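Subject line: Sequence and fold of a protein, written as C-alpha cells
Enclosed: The protein record, placed directly beneath this head.
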Amino acid sequence: MPTNQLTTNHNSFFKSPAVKNRIEQVVGKRAEQFTTSLLSIISNNTLLAKATSESIMGAAMKAAVLNLPIEPSLGFAYVVPYNRKYKDGTQWVTVNEAQFQIGYRGLIQLAQRSGQIRNIEHGVIYEEEFLGYDKMKGTLKLTGDYVDSGVIKGYFASLELINGFYKMIYWPKEKVVDHAKKYSKTYDKKEGDFKPGTPWATEFDSMAIKTLVKELLSKYAPLSVEMQDAISADNEDLNFNQSNEIKDAEPINTDQQLLDDLMSVDTETGEILEESTELKENGELDLKYEDPNAR
C-alpha cells in the first residue's frame, strides 16, 4: 500500500471519535497537540507508517501515561516499528507493529521526579585514562587527563542521592559484549554477530550506557510509581512466552536518528524481549490506562 494511503488510514484512525475520546481520557487538554505530534512522527517515517494504527496507539499511550515526549530528537521515549513473526495455525505471518521504547534520558527523568536524586552520571572509559577499578569500594581510578576518543575499556554509570548515598557501577567492554550476546534476541548465534540494523549492531556504545543506566536505577534508585510503571511497560513489549508462537522480533532498519538512544525492555540488557500486550486476540486495542495527573 502506498505511503500516502497508509498515512491517510492513520489519520482516519486517530481522528475517529472513539480514539479521540480515549486520548482525551489520558492526556486531557493536550489531546489535540498529542495527536498532531504523533501523526507528524508517523508521516516523517515511512516504516513507522506501515505499522498497525492500534500498535502505534498502544506505544504512544504508554509514553503519554509516563508523561514522556516521543519526539525522536529528544531521546526520552520512542515509537519504533518492528517486524514480528508469529505462527497463525500452520503458517508464519510477519506483522509490522510499533513498540514503546524508553530512552535512558527518559529513565533518568523519571528517577529525578522522585525528588531524591542529586546527580546521575554515565559515560565511556578509555584505555588511555584507565588505571584500575576497586570492586570493594566501587570506585574507578583514572589519570585525570581529558580523553574523549581511543580504545574503549568499559562503561560506567553513577548515582548520588540527596541523603548522601552514592553508587557507581562499572562494566568492562567484554562484560557488556557477553551480556548482550547472552540476553539479546538480536544476536545471531549462527553468524556470531548482532543482526544488521539493530541497535547493538549500529549503536553499541549507546546501548551499553543504557544497559548500565537501567541496571543502576532499577537496583539502587528510589523506585517511584512512574519508574515502576516504565519498567513494567517495557516488559510488556514483545512477549515471547505468550500463547502465540513467536519466531523472531527485530527492529526494522529505520533512519539512524530513530534508532539512537533506544532503551529496550529487558531489565538486564536493554533489548526488547516481549510481544505487545496491547492487542487482544480479536485484534481490538485494550486501552486501560491511568491518568498520570491522578497520581
The first helix runs from residue 3 to 14.
